[in-house]
Amino acid sequence: MPEGNTRSMTGGGATHRAAACAFIILVLAIYGVENVHAADTTAISVGRPLSGDQHRLVSPGGKFALGFFQPAGGVAGSWYVGIWYNNISVQTPVWVANRLRPVSDPATSRLAIAPDGNLVLFDGRTGSTVWSTEANITADVRNGTVAVLLDTGNLVLALASDASGSAAVLWQSFDHIGDTWLPGGKLRRDKRTGAIQGMVSWRARGDPAPGMYALQLDPDGAPQYVLLWNGTREYWITGNWTGRIFADAPEVAASSGSSGYTFKFVDNDDESYFTYNFADNSTVYRFVTDASGQVKGWFWVEATQAWNLVYAEPKARCAVPRVCGAFGVCSEGASTACDCARGFSPRIPPNWGQGDYTGGCVRNVELQCGKNSSGGGGAAAGSRKAKMDRFLEMDGMRLPDDGRVAGATSSGDCKNACLLNCSCSAYAFNGSCVLWHGDLLNLQDSLGGTAGRLYLRLAASELPGARSHSKWRITVIAVSAASIVVLVVTASVLVVRATRRRWIRARIQGLSAGDGRVISFKYRDLQSITRNFSDKLGGGAFGSVFRGELSSCTAVAVKKLEGLRQGEKQFRAEVSTLGTVQHVNLIRLLGFCSDGGDRKLLVYEYMPNGSLDRHLFRAMPPSYSLSWAARYRIALGVAKGLAYLHYKCRDCIIHCDVKPENILLDAAFAPKVADFGLAKLVGRDFSRVLTTMRGTIGYLAPEWISGEAITPKADVFSYGMTLFEIVSGRRNAEHGAFESAAAASGTDHTTTTFFPVTVARMLAESAEEGDDVTAFLDPELEGNANASELRRVCKVACWCIQDGVDARPTMAEVVQVLEGVTDVETPPVPRYLQVLAGRAMHASDTCV
């Protein structure tokens, strides 16, 4: 705080204490006091410290609490002072004071106002200062400081200037962010001092000490965020802020219609910073730099009493340095990011169960060389015991980047050079010899052409079955005999596979003829028809999809499910039910596989034209520009498919993830809703559904966030958001072309960054100017569209995205409107659109 501000405060200690009390009373009067227990306090002032794990400092509205706590999974006897959400069932710390120095006894430790006016944590056993705000407070005002916790989650050390309660902030936790960025906080750069405030991860689950990962503004001054490892190594960037989005992270936009948040960048002479807020103050959201090295966005859903992940970067988990720790191997395509190399086990198994792999792995059996050598690994010790260690050949690996080049000129010499040094953990030879000593870090498998071959050193007992040179002749004879047997067995297997493939093909033909049943595949069958899952079509929240061929003219799509915890019997029963769900606009489920463990797969009919997003947004080749007639047929077909799921099935099926990526197109560009069965397979555990819907926050109905019960109307909302994109050919948060269209029509909409807002405004104006609605269209259509159909679609879209569940139509009603059977009235502008529009709209304002 500038010195002049403190000097303007005058008066004795009693005056300041009275002013502080007045300040507290004013704050409580403004916010109201909720959920305050007898052991809670509303302020820490001189003579009123906080002590013990049953005492808390609670914010005026009861949203946040501060006190002593032990992190879940932490070390017993280690206590911290932190801030967490007061009214949710899962204790979630958002700020920790003494990250580096826990205290052992909260009963005797005190968080108090010290004689110098600072807020200080005293260790009860030693009496020493563990943590302090370290604000520069002048002597004349030291007795008037008070600490309060605001409903934003901001801990403030302030003093009252007079009895009116206006306060000068001396220190605040929002200027010292830990691993969590709350709404209203700033990630900033102080241009006067050059200091950069970022988010620093915890060291591990249960350990709030500063970790190795940090998100901060670009040190070079660019308006972008960078993720750093160890403060120096940059491994992900958002790209520059364009005023609307980050260039390389477009999902973070200036505003979001479905969640009601605004995101902005401020740059002035004193500082530059980003901040964000929500229109609804009851929204519980947090950005976290996770111990895994990813930046994650979490919503709290009251209905499910769980945090739901809606954002994570970088998406490539293996891009995070040391994400799997020592001797951990990272895999992008696996259901879990990390696994220990052979011969190793997780160092901290509970953390691995929570997705924190940074603790790495430890050897199951110590190396014999190191175990029997007392020195640094001399040649004599190595020659005695090195033969007890062997090497595991690991193909397709990303080699660690801290190897040392040795002088060996052959693979054998390189191997011996590693064996003769007890600290050597691995070697690689590709014309030159590279040795690695100590822990191996940043291992990654399945890298294809960029991969190398690594030889990992293990104790001999970890690689059983070694044969000595004296048994070489016997081995050759045995191998020859085995080869003959293998040839016979292989021929038999080929015959059996061919026969089974013909059987599978016959079963598929039976399905086409109306059999109505699904096939139970063996895992090896799906490996065969997909060529060991080599042709990947894409991936989504629930797994990856691969192309398979039953014959030269019969293709299928095979989806490998990830993270599904259903039992065998339940899974089979659910899939059998889904097999009876048949509609021309729903993807056909042909079969499934459930061979135990994680081997749960679904087999669908193959859609040659891929997903709708490919053609709307030109997401990937090949893509085609869809005519208006094709888009209208797609909109109608999707509505019919969803109406069938909601009302024509034996049980109502809520899709939960309607978006262009989940609308597939057959050879004739007829739409088929995909992944509709996945919501049923995960049951009504919507926490799990939301957790896996990363990157689709723009399609989520408001009730997902507010915690209300989920109904089919959640699908209606998502369908409405999809309709806007079918019309515009762009993501709802992209608006450049529509600004141009607005300018051409003489209207001023250059500040609109969310397409539904543009539709709401332009439709209202076009209704007064001759019903010209073609400005909404994808520019590639050049205005070629049926005006009445276009207006009908836009009206339906506006109705579908209403805030209130009851105000939205059913999908059956949507079908009737799009078919022209019934007309639709003029819809009101949804409340959240008024907020996003940045101006007050009258209640009479309408979308059309």
Automatic annotation (TrEMBL):
Q: Quote the catalytic activity from the record.
A: L-seryl-[protein] + ATP = O-phospho-L-seryl-[protein] + ADP + H(+); L-threonyl-[protein] + ATP = O-phospho-L-threonyl-[protein] + ADP + H(+)
Which molecular function terms from Gene Ontology are attached? ATP binding; protein kinase activity
- Species of origin: Zizania palustris (Northern wild rice)
Q: What is its main location?
A: membrane
Q: What is this protein called?
A: Receptor-like serine/threonine-protein kinase
SMART domains per record: B_lectin, PAN_AP, S_TKc
State the CDD domains in the record: B_lectin, PAN_AP_plant, STKc_IRAK
Gene Ontology terms: cellular component? membrane
Keywords associated with the record = ATP-binding, Disulfide bond, EGF-like domain, Glycoprotein, Kinase, Membrane, Nucleotide-binding, Serine/threonine-protein kinase, Signal, Transferase, Transmembrane, Transmembrane helix
